Amino acid sequence: MLNKLPGKGGSMKSGNFWYLFVGLLAVLLVMPFTSNLPGGGRYSIALLFSVFMLIAVWSLAASKRVFQFGTLLVVGITSSVGFNIVVGVNQVMEMIELLMMVIFCGLSCSIAARNVFVWHRVDLNSLVGAFCVYLLMGLIWALMYRMLLLCGLGHFSGNIATQTHELFPDLIYFSFVTLASLGYGDISPIGGLPKTLAYLEALVGQFYLAVMVASLVGVYSSRRNRG
Fold this sequence. Notes:
Radius of gyration: 18 Å
Number of helices: 7
Structural class: mainly alpha
Strand content: 5-15%
CATH topology: Helix Hairpins
Distance between the termini: 26 Å
Number of strands: 4
């Protein structure tokens, strides 16, 4: 069954957010256990992320243009990862790879958020979609932290890995702790840009939760009053 996206002339698969949720969950849960695998887990992380991207493109694309652009990004990221694996990690190629990942996750987040808040439905699929947006925001910020470190524009202190292949899981951990405003303090940003990104992430995380809850409660109350 296909659900029409209001005002866009596109369509999305019914229950599409479950596919995206499973893909995101697989990436986030498996990643910390890959550091002892060949290549320091880089190959496994790249494979996991490629699978996630394919799932996201397949489940979220509401138009042919979006599908083609998403597929192009998947091909570009996969090619960049393959280049780094075969030739050796190159800083420029890794930066391009990270930038394309940020664009891809940002596109997925935008499409998912638009569908969650445009459909004006309160059901399990829309709740899963709202959670996917939250997970994607945490992943986007983790990628941006990695980009800052790669450019030498800041660093982190505390209980964080020193080896490159073990660093990204720690950045994901820090990103979600910041997004949820938990503030454990075991990892701290040092430098202007990392600190700025950190407090912006905390603000966005709190704002998103407030807007999401208000939107869902508003839709539920409106339907209840009409019923």
